[in-house]
Amino acid sequence: MLDKIIAHKFVLLMAMLCMMLCSSIGITLAYQNTLTDSISITTSIFLGLTLCITVALFILDQVRLICNP
Prior knowledge:
The protein is an all-alpha fold. It has helices spanning 2-30, 34-67. The protein has 2 helices and no strands.
């Protein structure tokens, strides 16, 4: 039961991170203000790193579950 709750939270986290990353990239492309571009690009970089780290940790957890029953 707890695994299903964690799985749903992971899917929700991934969906939120992807939506935030897409909106940040959209803001960068839509607005021509230097401050807005700087903030949006910085946010995109941090969100991309967070997304990569989260996926890597999820893959490591899945490998541990498979290899250590």
